[in-house]
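Hi P.,

Sorry for the delay on this. The queue was packed all week, but I finally got your sequence through. Input first:
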Amino acid sequence: MHKKLRLELKLLLLLVDFIVISALFYYFLFFRYDYLYQSWTWNTLIQMFDDQYKAYFLLLVCWVLISEFTNLYGSARFVRFIYYISRSLYQLLLFSFILYTVSGIKSESLFTNKQSILFVGILGLYIIASRTFIFYFNKAYFKKGYNSKNLIIVGNNDNTSVVTNLIHERKNFGLILREVFDRDNLQLSDVTDYLAEHKIDYAYICLGSNMDNAMIQKLSELFEDHYITVGFIPDTSQEITNSMDFMYLDSFPIQTYKKYPLDNSFNQILKRLFDVLFSLLMLVLVLWWLLPLLAVVLLITQGYPIIFVQRRNGLNGKEFDCYKFRTMRADRHNNRKPTEKNDPRVTKFGKILRVTSLDELPQFFNVLKGDMSVVGPRPHMVSENESYSEVIKRYALRHYVKPGITGLAQIRGYRGAIECNEDMEMRIRTDIYYVRNWSFLLDMYIIYRTVRLMIVGDENAI
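Then the structure:
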């Protein structure tokens, strides 16, 4: 899709949004001042516009300005649904603040509180419904092969195969991998000749390959000269570059560590407040009767003890006592030996608890104590922490947030037996993604998927 057509579609979507906002504005304005406006006529509409045109245009201008901040009209090609919707919710939240402010500063409120809530509610339903439709329509459109973008990859490193596999498996990205230049002694002329014969939209350069910095710089300039979007595939050893930001000393750039979302004090308070409220709600609605019931069944089928306490690593690697219902027979290796597939130590009732994740319910008390969060990377045994931190790079990043009762890796299927380092590496990669991209909406999505898995059962549970 050409840039001109893409711009026209964005303007069309903006126009539709304006029509919806305008319709809501004048609909509620008519009923707000029903003693002035007697019937729906063109003259009435003109009169309403003449009376409130300043507030009307201010709201439209604010909508556009906010959309620049939230990237509401940005591309959805590489964006996950959860983030595509989250920017719509941020747009709605900020616009609601403007709407209430504009209404409140007038000598007589523009809308009543009830009308303002209805205005925002209807607008919110429209925004979520329209963006959901657009997102899935685009993905289906790309998957059919329409509006595909041509991609080349230059170089080769530890992550190249991961990216190429994603492109081949996920057709809804709308990317076609045309060529991989991974041969030794690659010459700039090889790429130049290829670009002369093929239309390329994206070029990914592999960092940490056999190319020096001078070659990477020349390639970047070549791609930019051909109006190609340049991306970089980090090598495992250079993955830290994803966490770097820039500050400037006068005009000289200095790289600094980028703050993670949960480094923000407001986000920390929001997450902790949700953890406490959600845990108390679970205690009041479910745990007060379910925990004693499960405890009685465990006592009858397995005997004492009911609760299994294990030392695990939490925030900043600090050890804490993690609570679980005991699902294994007594064994002196339980505290150091990870659970295996078809592990003979797991009891029959313990297997049921594990498949449904009910064995994790006592960890809500860990959440109330502040050792854990409802959502976060799952805490590993101390012995696992010690062994995998030595062989998996960036492993410690998962400890930048509190461990969770459930997490992104668990709903993605990276749960259960660890048969090789690659299994753990995929789990850690997903945990690191969560740390770097946390949002409240992402936590809600993970909780929803977790409840769904508890109902249907998780085949990866052991």
